[in-house]
Amino acid sequence: MDDDLCDALSRVVSARYVSRAKQNANAVDGVFKRLSSSRAMPKEPLGDDVIELMLHRLSSMDSNNFIGNVGVGEREGRTFSSLVRRRCFGMTHGIGRSGDVAAEQPKACGSSLANALCGFLARDALKLAGMRDVGKRVLVLPTATGMTLTLVLTSLKKQRGVEGRYVIWSRLDQKTCVKAVTCAGLEIVVIEPVLRGDQLETDVEAIERAIENLGSERVVAVVTSTSCFAPRACDEIEKTAKMCERLDVGHVINNAYGVQSRALCERVNKAWTVGRVDAVVQSTDKNFLVPVGGALVCCGKRNETLIDEVATNYPGRASAYASLDLFITLLSMGEKGWVRLLTERETLYEYMREELSKVAEEVGERMLETPGNPISMAMTLSCAQNVSPTMFGSMLFSRLVSGTRVVTPGETKTIGGVEFRGFGASHSAYPHTYFTAAAAIGTTHDDVDRFAAILRKTFLEFKVKAAASAAAS
Ligand SMILES: *Cc1c(COP(=O)(O)O)cnc(C)c1O
């Protein structure tokens, strides 16, 4: 509200009321000013009303919403359904241009602003989570983790040139990880982790031998992972980063849901400080409590070129949803809310582990010792002798527990033409049957209590079934 407008309005209603209204209208401008200059999350959470005002302000900057706009092109941000229009606050132009998915869209100043601000907020959120030395640019992409890994690997392959054919991958049994490589037109070389105690750890020496055997010029990248199902531990990303630097090979870290763990973020931060890390990919839904659809690509300060290439390699414009959802969410959390969520998760991990340990002891099972995994945990299912262990998972699911994963040794699966023995365990001969659960961001104490109670009942019932089938056979 400028002074001319206030003068005009003051002739209709009292000037002092107009001046109060002006203060409030300027408060929204103030938020924009602060965000643009600080490039950081607001300290305090913003209320929905303020965020909505901001979104309408941004929307009014897009040409499809200009009063009297005449669109005669083939892409004018038109919508048939007003529901669809409202779902994106009228920001229908999406993001990017044909040359760069992060480029400003001339027809959509507001959408471009929202997207750019989201990149700043996301970068700040990563720093607050422990990735302190993140590079200048954080790319918010409208593709989930797997497809984003494909885009990153495709860009690395282009850098490597015609000789680049292979990706060396520290095995993590999640089909997407394999497909992310094969979809980029690359061949995957699987390096199985080594079993130490209960835990599966990176075979760094085997990765190095594989690079030497293939010839480093033919290896596009080593792909390591931080967040994964127990009993697999976070990869030795620091050692791998040093090795990749020494051998001149790319290094991509799959940090799918690692942002929510301070320990994992600090390891990422260390890795890009001591060695080579070309890109780190993280899921928006798994870390920030938004719907599925986006991922963040970032890197340390030493090596920032790949991120720019990923942005320019992306063919065409893109949906703004992932970025808009994250923008809204980070404003709504504020720095305080985000840091609190992260802290609560750390506490919840300890609580879940304690409660599950109690159950395990009562039912004659045990928790697998996996100190290298700060999110996921696993309990043995040694009682699954005469019944299919997967029935245990179905029983939990029918009691409304979702998210556990039962793993039986000895299953073989072929994914992307590669055969995996012991699929599910990230190891071809893991010695235990077990199930996993995750203390992920947003899980509550109540979830843990109810899970523990259902688990007790399920174990009892499962053991009865096992005994009955043993008697029958
Ligand atoms: C979730 C996950 C993926 C796949 O992610 P999408 O977001 O579904 O593409 C890949 N790797 C790991 C480690 C994951 O946790």
TrEMBL record:
Pathway: Aminoacyl-tRNA biosynthesis; selenocysteinyl-tRNA(Sec) biosynthesis; selenocysteinyl-tRNA(Sec) from L-seryl-tRNA(Sec) (archaeal/eukaryal route): step 2/2
Site residues (May act as a substrate filter by repelling compounds with a negatively charged alpha-carboxylate), renumbered to this chain: 74
Molecular function GO terms recorded: O-phosphoseryl-tRNA(Sec) selenium transferase activity; tRNA binding
Residues noted as binding substrate in the record, renumbered to the chain: 97-98, 105, 317
Protein's cellular compartments: Cytoplasm
Keywords of the record: Cytoplasm, Protein biosynthesis, Pyridoxal phosphate, RNA-binding, Selenium, Transferase, tRNA-binding
EC nos: 2.9.1.2
Catalyzed reaction equations: O-phospho-L-seryl-tRNA(Sec) + selenophosphate + H2O = L-selenocysteinyl-tRNA(Sec) + 2 phosphate
GO cellular component: cytoplasm
Its biological purpose: Converts O-phosphoseryl-tRNA(Sec) to selenocysteinyl-tRNA(Sec) required for selenoprotein biosynthesis.
Database matches in PANTHER family: O-PHOSPHOSERYL-TRNA(SEC) SELENIUM TRANSFERASE, SOLUBLE LIVER ANTIGEN/LIVER PANCREAS ANTIGEN
Name this polypeptide is given: O-phosphoseryl-tRNA(Sec) selenium transferase
